């Protein structure tokens, strides 16, 4: 039980650091903090699918693109307040998730991965041929100019904290127990009365909703949206990188992974051309030498977890 | 009716090319039960290698294959020995990630060396056409693509059925433990398999380079086409791959003709999604 106060103190200090950041840090640092928060959110949602529900999706960018475009369209064409538009983006993403679930839930493993990727690519083509959203030229989200940096940062921070908390609480709930049972042995768990479809469906919708929201905040910061960038596979590649180096199937993995990823990205941005080669090299290295990711390997050696989801 | 004959015939010819694009991915899946996300990059790497030989030695692109194919076999062999064989027993994700890492590395190395400019392997074949009953023209290059594609698929089929290495590959795919007990060096067999897959990537890379322009990041686009072909036909089935190529090629060109050129890729994806939904294991794929 002695581990509990340490954990709590650690979390409180971390939160205090993040909440006060806009007060003392430079604009650049806050921007980096925002990116970390958003990548933690996105990666946690991918981890919820791939690490806990056995659904390795390569199509998270469909929700990112849709969230961004919903924000752009509803705030510019309909004059809806920006943060409400971000919320709409989440709902539209859920709507898409429900729509495609008829199809993708028939696919398993590799087929699921490729099916989701193809849907995202198809959406990218649709948006780049759609005059309403200005074809492939992209849209400037003008209402986002007026927002203050710290406002956007807090939106990102709220998303980040609530998504980590959500994953943590979800895994401690009955649903989490069912998910881990499915991951370990789907046939045995189904025999014992776990409704596999229902569990996976809930995770899929949750992941779509929060990814759509995070995408909205992301584009509040980026201001410019373009179909092939928004629906590009590189989003999911980044998430894969974050979760794999952090540790797949752990709550802390995406957090550590996102911090490393964003810092590396900032640091390597001077070395254009080499940065992605280094990313590729690191990915291969981590898989060889720390197969369970940094957090997973650390947990195996020390047994200490920041967010224990197992029951004692 | 006659106006739809042209996209039909061109689609079938394009499908022959798509068949070779997909075959390497299909082989690796059929033999190792793994997905090689670097396949598209191996293709484009071959296109650039061919370009180098073409510029340095002044050879015809098809002739450069004499050099590019063995080189790619060697590269494939090394990739399997040094990288893939180490994670074969650890499920799907590590293999996916390693091949992903490899694809990022190849793509960006190509970008550094060759700059992001569009390149092509220029030949006279692109301009020449074959007249069909005075109705329309078929680009000569499409005929070459289809012929080479059909030859490669047939040769591979015969190789797998008739040679000792083909049997060893099939045996390792069917039952790894039993193959090992029979004295087959499974790791080496897998290395040969990836080498052969890389040779098909070399052939498709050169054909693609002759037919279209390519960039360092074109690999992703062809990886999706390869996935499309392989999924429509059924992962791991050789005849299915050819059929998958034809279905994808025809549906793309019909979609382009009916909906407009911007929707050419989209119509291929839609056919792919319908098949994935209705028959997730592909048209000719087993369970």
Automatic annotation (TrEMBL), chain A:
The keyword Cell cycle does not apply. It is found in: Cell membrane. InterPro entries: ABC_transp_permease, LivM-like. It holds the Pfam family BPD_transp_2. Keywords: Cell membrane, Membrane, Transmembrane, Transmembrane helix. The keyword Iron-sulfur does not apply. It comes from the Bacteria. Its main location: membrane. It is a multi-pass membrane protein. GO terms for cellular component: plasma membrane. The chain crosses the membrane at residues 7-25, 31-50, 62-80, 86-105, 110-132, 152-171, 201-225, 237-264, 271-290. GO terms for molecular function: branched-chain amino acid transmembrane transporter activity. This is Branched-chain amino acid ABC transporter permease. It comes from Candidatus Desulfacyla euxinica. The lineage of its organism: Bacteria, Deltaproteobacteria, Candidatus Desulfacyla.
TrEMBL record, chain B:
The chain crosses the membrane at residues 12-30, 42-59, 65-83, 95-114, 134-156, 189-215, 221-246, 258-278. It is a multi-pass membrane protein. GO terms for biological process: amino acid transport. Its main location: membrane. One of its GO terms (cellular component) is plasma membrane. Keywords: Amino-acid transport, Cell membrane, Membrane, Transmembrane, Transmembrane helix, Transport. Belongs to the binding-protein-dependent transport system permease family. LivHM subfamily. This is Branched-chain amino acid ABC transporter permease. It comes from Candidatus Desulfacyla euxinica.
